[in-house]
Amino acid sequence: MEGGKLLIFSAPSGSGKTTIVRHLLQQPELNLAFSVSVTSRPRRGNEVEGVNYYYITAEEFIQKIKNEEFLEWEEVYRDNFYGTLKSEVERLWAEGKNVIFDIDVAGGLRIKRKFPEKTLAVFVKPPSIDELKIRLKKRSTESDDKINMRIAKASVEMATEPLFDVVIKNYDLKAAFKDAHRLVAKFVGAPEPEFEDNEE
Ligand code: 5GP
Fold this sequence. Notes:
alpha/beta; Rossmann fold; five-stranded parallel sheet; four-stranded mixed sheet; 40% helix; globular; binds guanosine-5'-monophosphate
């Protein structure tokens, strides 16, 4: 496998990494494409097959593990598998793209270990666990049980911050967008973005 750069955005659920990744995908000069993961969790109402995820059953997922189809995979929450297909990254590399990932902390670090030189591993840091709780509750796409499961995992994930190449603080979304844009532009060799003075 060989090709463009890999940009990993990992963070506890609710830290805003998905929003940051979407923002970066809108910047044409970064030449990014999103790595669509496979998951066995149910599709949420607003999600689209092949855009947010490829949705399969846990049995199908386990078969793909056996077939060694994954670059990395994790049972992120109990019985909810998530993984990055080798074929997905190869497809995007063949299109000449830099590939951006919205994946959990363990999966992100695994890809970094596999491709240390061409990967930038970014940790998106939320202000606090309390703020995460508020954000997850506002999102209200999950039951209280599921939210509590995500918060418990978030506390563990927060401790992995030093293992990443770089940390973006997501205390203020606009500032986080700019930090992320600058960092990624530098890493992929795109022109440094210019922001209006009044936006700073
Ligand atoms: P959600 O269910 O909210 O879409 O995602 C739950 C968590 O799984 C998030 O932290 C998300 O980034 C992570 N995730 C999504 N796709 C993958 C993947 O392919 N591999 C790994 N390891 N984690 C993933």
